[in-house]
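Quiz preparation item.
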């Protein structure tokens, strides 16, 4: 149970981190 939750949180964390990285990369020098 705990392992499954850890994997899910890990995937969500990686996806969120990747999304933020892409957003920052595309908006660098534009929004700022």
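Solution:
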């Amino acid at each position: 149970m705990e392992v499954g939750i850890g994997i899910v949180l890990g995937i969500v964390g990686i996806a969120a981190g990747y999304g933020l990285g892409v957003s920052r990369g595309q908006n660098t020098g534009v929004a700022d």
